[in-house]
Design a protein that fits this description.
Layout: E1 3-9, H1 17-31, E2 36-42, H2 44-48, H3 55-72, E3 80-83, H4 88-98, H5 103-107, H6 110-118, H7 127-130, H8 132-142, E4 147-149, H9 155-171, E5 181-183, H10 187-190, H11 216-224, H12 245-253, H13 257-269, H14 274-300, H15 303-332
Parallel strand pairs: 1-2, 2-3, 4-5
Helix pairs in contact: 3-14, 4-8, 4-15, 8-9, 11-14, 12-14
Tryptophan binds at residues 6-10, 41, 43, 46, 136, 139-140, 148, 150, 154.
């Protein structure tokens, strides 16, 4: 029995190295394991829950994210890539699930609480935003996904989804919905990749991320502007490697960790300049990004082919989601006309 895996991203920006190491790389590995049937969803409706007045941003980034997927090697022949808004069953399931979740329960979701604080919703918090975990439960259950690879900020979503599955199945005396499990990244990769300025998080507003689509010159400029050890002024000074972004990136990306350990020893002893370490990191990252850039350029030549790929994936996703919806409707008893079907 193959296990269905669902992952997703909100198309609110281009994907960066943090996405690559925390998620994309793993998706490529999973698609080659025939125990799994992977689905990747571009969560444009979820993105609209806090971007309702800026649909252009979502529209533009839909293609950006699709190109990011293809360029890192997510292969539409092995992974079903689809677009959330094109799967009407997800919205209908969300409506049924909302009746099974109390207002106080949605207000208790810690990730949503944090996001509400961060997002300064001037006109008040959109209802759609508060209930997006319910819609995410529809995403997961529509495909009967049993594994959801996520970062730990998404654990409350999986927990809420599991509750909905249990309540739905118990209320309507069915087993149509499958309880998913979170699949966390290996311990070493669970930590967030810091921004180039040393900030704990890469964010568009801080302009401190390295994007998969950055060209060579941009990558060079970003690596050479990285935060290191502010007290490491002269090459001969002993330097710190903890909290030094260049070394944090080398720990994650350098194929030769023995060489990195050597560099660390020299840096800590004094006598190794920032420029040399940055050049080393630039080469490591450029080796990683070069083939990704080339693939991206290839796919970017034909945007309609990319759109067609998303449509084909969405057609397939609709078949699966509609089948789950049909069974869910029957369980609830809103299948009044099923007996009329020929
Ligand atoms: N909330 C996820 C994020 O912000 C995106 C997402 C939407 C998702 N639906 C999903 C992830 C279903 C996994 C499964 O990253």
């Amino acid at each position: 029995m193959t296990k269905t895996i669902l992952t997703g991203d909100r198309p609110t920006g281009k994907l960066h190295l943090g996405h690559y190491i925390g998620s994309l790389k793993n998706r490529v590995a999973l698609q080659d394991n025939d125990q799994y049937d992977p689905y990747v969803m571009i969560a444009d409706m979820q993105a609209l829950t806090d971007n309702a007045h800026n649909p252009k941003k979502i529209q533009d980034n839909l293609l950006n994210v699709a190109l990011d997927y293809l360029s890192v090697g997510i292969d539409p022949a092995k992974t079903t890539i689809f677009v959330q808004s094109q799967i009407p069953a997800l919205s209908e399931l969300t409506m049924y699930y909302m009746n099974l979740v109390s207002i106080s329960r949605v207000e208790r979701n810690p990730t949503v609480k944090t996001e509400i604080k961060q997002k300064n919703f001037g006109e008040g918090v959109p209802t759609g935003f508060v209930v997006y975990p319910i819609s995410q439960a529809a995403d997961i259950t529509a495909f009967r996904a049993s594994l959801v690879p996520v970062g730990d900020d998404q654990l409350p979503m999986i927990e809420q989804c599991r509750e909905i599955v249990r309540t739905f199945n118990a209320t309507y005396h069915t087993d149509v919905l499958v309880e998913p499990e979170a699949m966390l990244p290996p311990a070493g990769l669970a930590r967030r990749l810091p921004g180039i300025d040393g900030n704990a998080k890469m964010s568009k507003s801080l302009n401190n991320g390295i994007y998969l689509s950055d060209d060579e010159q941009t990558l060079h400029d970003k690596v050479f502007s990285m935060y290191t050890d502010p007290d490491h002024i002269h090459v001969s000074d002993p330097g710190k490697v903890e909290g030094n972004v260049v070394f944090e990136y080398l720990d994650v990306f350098a194929p030769d960790q023995t060489a990195v350990d050597d560099l660390k020893r020299q840096y800590q002893a004094g006598g190794l300049g920032d420029v040399k370490v940055k050049k080393y990191l630039f080469d490591v990252l450029n080796d990683l990004l070069k083939p990704i850039r080339a693939k991206r350029a290839e796919y970017a030549k034909d945007e309609n082919a990319v759109r067609q790929m998303l449509k084909d994936g969405s057609d397939k996703a609709n078949e699966v989601a509609n089948d789950t919806l049909k069974k869910a409707r029957a369980a609830i008893g809103v299948n009044y006309f099923d007996t009329l079907e020929k």
